[in-house]
């Protein structure tokens, strides 16, 4: 599990760093991450409306960016669904 966490953190920082800051994902960075890294788990990820709705549901402080903790909610939701725990 440690390796999986290291990969998640590294991927977040890599995508977040596109604008110079590795602390948060902008909407564009988030869309790039989701479409390239989660295409089979996030349906219609290329649709801007899907990204907008998903980002809004994660962005707890409504600042238009996602912190790692806000992004982590998505990881948890997807893992829960993928593992069949959400039934």
From TrEMBL:
Coiled coil region boundaries: none
Annotated ranges, domain EF-hand: 46-81
Cleaved signal peptide residues: none
PROSITE patterns: EF_HAND_1, EF_HAND_2
GO cellular component: extracellular space; perinuclear region of cytoplasm
Keywords: Calcium, Metal-binding
Top-level taxon of the source organism: Eukaryota
Metal-binding keyword on record: yes
Family matches, as SUPFAM superfamilies: EF-hand
CDD domains associated with the record: S-100
Pfam families attached to this UniProt entry: S_100
GO MF term (any one): transition metal ion binding
PANTHER family for the chain: PROTEIN S100-A11, S100 CALCIUM-BINDING PROTEIN
Protein name: S100-A13
Gene it is expressed from: S10AD
């Amino acid at each position: 599990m440690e390796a999986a966490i290291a990969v998640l953190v590294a991927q977040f920082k890599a995508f977040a760093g596109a604008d110079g800051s590795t602390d948060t994902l902008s909407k564009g960075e988030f869309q790039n991450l989701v479409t390239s890294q989660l295409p089979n788990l996030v349906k219609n990820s290329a649709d801007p409306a899907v990204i907008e709705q998903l980002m809004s549901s994660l962005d707890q402080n409504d600042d238009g960016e996602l912190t790692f903790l806000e992004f982590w909610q998505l990881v948890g939701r997807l893992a829960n669904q993928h593992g069949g725990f959400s039934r």
